[in-house]
Design brief:
Blueprint lengths: L2 H18 L1 E4 L8 E11 L10 E3 H13 L5 E11 L1 H12 L5 E9 L3 H6 L3 E4 L4 E4 L12 H20 L5 H8 L11 E4 L1 H5 L5 E2 L2 H16 L1
Parallel strand pairs: 2-3, 2-4, 4-5, 5-6, 6-9
Antiparallel strand pairs: 1-2, 7-8
Helix pairs in contact: 2-3
Length: about 230
């Protein structure tokens, strides 16, 4: 590869990071090819968010996850999360896709993984959170006018049950305890729910370990090697 080709390759990588928050990590000593996807800002669903809002578009993430599964050259997937949450359907779709991958997967919660970010964080084979990382767990809520009829509240409960079942099915917290954290009234000002910081998320059984990028990559390399054997 000549110098111009190298420069073009670097520009392509930088452009992909800027546009999608994704990059291939393939310069490690283990010679493993790892794909990294970042879930940042708000998880955008069917409604397009304003240009001033940082967002993760599910129509970008879902095809990329399918490509990761289909690509024999990809050994593992690293998910970085710093999200305020967002569209429930889009977030659950991303979480379900990640959990169904045959490739080893690891997630790392950085600034925070709130609301629908919780199912995404636990959807991987192993999860980490940095010491200052936060997770906000609260009941399902929608913006705009809500018609106060029984069917509306039943629909809310169905959505909430889907989230609860997914989370408790992919980590060690019990459904009873998760609902207690979700319905806590003494933590969030003028709202219902809980804030877990770093080791608290591990203690509750939602996240596997406290750690950073070094720990996450080290674990992913071990999972890849284990799968190879």
């Amino acid at each position: 590869m000549n110098e111009n080709d190298k420069l073009q390759k670097e520009r392509d990588v930088e452009e992909k990071i800027e546009k999608t928050g994704q990059v291939d990590l393939n310069e490690n000593e283990e010679k493993h090819k790892i794909h990294m996807i970042s879930i940042i800002g708000e998880v955008e669903g069917h409604d397009i968010l304003g240009s001033s809002t940082k967002a993760t578009k599910y129509e970008h993430i879902l095809p990329e996850l399918a490509r990761v599964e289909d690509n024999s050259k990809v050994d593992g997937l690293l998910i970085l999360l710093n999200t305020m949450g967002g569209d429930v359907e889009a977030g659950l779709a991303i979480a379900e896709m990640i959990s169904s991958l045959s490739k080893p997967t690891v997630s790392l919660v950085l600034g925070g993984s709130h609301s629908i970010g919780v199912p995404i964080a636990v959807s991987t084979d192993h999860s980490f959170i940095v010491p200052t990382g936060t997770m906000v767990i609260h009941p399902v809520r929608l913006n705009g006018m809500v018609i106060g009829v029984a069917q509306t509240f039943d629909y809310f409960k169905q959505i909430q049950d889907r989230i609860c079942h997914f989370v408790t099915g992919h980590c060690s917290i019990s459904e009873k305890r998760f609902l207690e954290l979700m319905m806590e009234t003494k933590v969030l000002t003028k709202d219902v729910g809980s804030i877990l910081v770093g080791k608290e998320a591990v203690k509750e059984g939602i996240i596997d370990e406290v750690g950073g990028i070094r720990d996450a990559l080290k674990k992913l390399h071990k999972l890849i090697e284990k799968k190879g054997k």
